[in-house]
Specification:
Layout: H1 8-21, H2 23-36, H3 38-41, E1 47-48, H4 49-56, H5 60-72, E2 77-80, E3 83-85, H6 88-91, H7 102-108, H8 111-115, H9 119-125, H10 129-134, H11 138-144, H12 146-168, E4 177-181, H13 187-195, E5 200-205, H14 207-210, H15 213-219, E6 226-230, E7 243-247, H16 255-268, E8 274-278, E9 281-282, H17 290-302, E10 307-308, H18 309-318, E11 321-326, E12 332-336
Parallel strand pairs: 4-5, 4-7, 5-6, 7-8, 9-10
Antiparallel strand pairs: 1-3, 2-3, 8-12, 11-12
Helix pairs in contact: 2-7, 4-5, 7-12, 11-12, 12-13
C-alpha cells in the first residue's frame, strides 16, 4: 500500500532480496579466483597476499580485497592480517582436487554467465538466450572455440563421477552389450565395462567427439571390448545393444528434440531391450529443489529442460517406451512397448 510506513519487517525483506540479487557478484568472485588459480598456490602455511599475487600475476591491492571477501564466505581463511591459508572450500577449487570445481567455476563465470544477461529473451520467447547473445547454439559455439570446449569438457568430467556411480550400482546381470549414446570420450562407459568383465560396449557420439575415446578406453583396459561409432543421435542409425544409456542427454533439449532422440532409440532397440536415463527428476510439489533452478539454466543455455516424473512418463510414452522404475540410485529405467 502506498501510504504504508516502512517497518523493520520491510527492511528485513529488502535485505533478504538484496542478498539474493548480489549472487552474481559471488559467482564472478569465485570464477576469477578459479581463473587465476589461487587455490593451487595456497596451503595450510599462511601466505602473504603479496606472494599470492606474484604467483598468480594479479594486482596485489585488488586481489587482497577479493581474498578478504571470500574469506568471509569460508573460501579462504585470513589467519593473520593479509595472510591467507587454504580451507576445505578452496581445496575444492584446486586443479588436482578429486572432484574439482575449478572448471565449473570458470565455465559458469564465462559464456554461460553472460547468456543470463539476456535471460528475459528466454522467458518471453521460450528460446535460449545463449543463441541471442552469441549468434549460435551452445554446442556449435563449443565446436568453434577450443578453449571454451576444453573448460566445458573438464567441468563435465569432474561431475561425471556421480553419474558413473549410478551406473555401477545397476544390476548388469544377463546383459551382454551396452551402448552409451552421446557418451563423449567414453570415460563413463570405460568404468562400467571395467567393473563388469562380461559386458561388451559401444560408444556412440559425434565423430569429432569420439576421436579421443581410443586413449580413454585403452587406459581403462576395455578397448578390446568396446566399439566406437561416430554419428548423430538425431538422424543416424544407432548401434544395436541390449541396453541404451543416455546420461544427461535429454535435458539438453526441448520436448520436440528429446522426442526425436527417443524415437531414434526406439527404431533400433530390441523389443526386450532397456533404456537407462541418467537424469534428474524435478519434484511436483512446492518444496525447494536444485532441479528447479537448473531447469531455468537449461532453458537459457540450450533451450532444454529438467522434467518431473509425470513429464518423463509422458515423453517416453509418446515414443513407445514405458517408464518402469526409478532405481534406488536415481536411474530412470524404461522398456520398449
Amino acid at each position: 500500500m502506498p501510504d504504508e510506513q516502512p517497518t523493520s519487517e520491510h527492511a528485513e525483506v529488502r535485505a533478504q532480496l538484496f542478498d539474493m540479487l548480489v549472487g552474481f557478484m559471488r559467482t564472478q568472485a569465485l570464477s576469477v579466483i578459479a581463473k587465476l588459480g589461487v587455490a593451487d598456490v595456497l596451503t595450510s602455511t599462511p601466505m602473504d597476499v603479496s606472494e599470492i599475487a606474484r604467483r598468480v600475476s594479479a594486482h596485489e591491492p585488488s586481489l587482497y580485497r577479493l581474498l578478504r571477501f571470500l574469506a568471509t564466505e569460508g573460501v579462504f581463511a585470513e589467519v593473520e592480517p593479509r595472510r591467507f591459508t587454504e580451507t576445505a572450500l578452496s581445496n575444492g577449487l584446486r586443479t588436482d582436487a578429486p572432484v574439482t570445481a575449478r572448471w565449473l567455476a570458470i565455465m559458469l563465470g564465462s559464456e554461460q554467465y553472460r547468456s543470463w544477461g539476456d535471460a528475459l529473451h528466454s522467458f518471453m520467447t521460450g528460446e535460449p538466450a545463449f543463441d541471442q547473445v552469441y549468434g549460435s547454439g551452445f554446442f556449435d559455439y563449443l565446436a568453434e572455440h577450443p578453449d571454451a570446449s576444453g573448460t566445458f569438457d573438464r567441468a563435465m568430467a569432474a561431475g561425471s563421477q556421480g553419474r558413473v556411480a549410478d551406473l555401477l550400482s545397476y544390476d548388469w546381470t544377463g546383459i551382454e552389450r551396452v551402448a552409451d549414446i552421446g557418451g563423449g570420450n567414453g570415460a563413463a562407459l570405460g568404468v562400467v565395462l571395467a567393473s563388469n568383465p562380461h559386458l561388451r560396449g559401444v560408444l556412440f557420439d559425434l565423430p569429432t567427439v569420439v576421436v579421443a575415446a581410443d586413449e580413454v578406453l585403452r587406459d581403462a583396459g576395455v578397448l578390446d571390448r568396446c566399439d566406437i561409432v561416430g554419428g548423430d543421435f538425431f538422424t543416424d542409425s544407432l548401434p544395436p545393444a541390449d541396453v541404451y544409456v543416455l546420461s544427461q542427454i535429454l535435458h539438453d533439449w526441448n520436448d520436440e528434440r528429446a522426442s526425436a532422440i527417443l524415437r531414434n532409440c526406439r527404431r533400433t532397440l530390441a523389443d526386450d531391450g532397456r533404456l537407462l536415463l541418467v537424469e534428474g527428476i524435478v519434484p511436483d510439489g512446492p518444496e525447494p529443489d536444485f532441479g528447479k533452478l537448473f531447469d531455468l539454466h537449461m532453458l537459457v543455455l540450450v533451450g532444454g529442460k529438467e522434467r518431473t516424473e509425470s513429464e518423463w512418463r509422458a515423453l517416453l510414452a509418446q515414443e513407445r517406451f514405458e517408464f518402469r522404475q526409478v532405481t534406488p540410485d536415481g536411474l530412470i529405467e524404461a522398456r520398449p512397448v
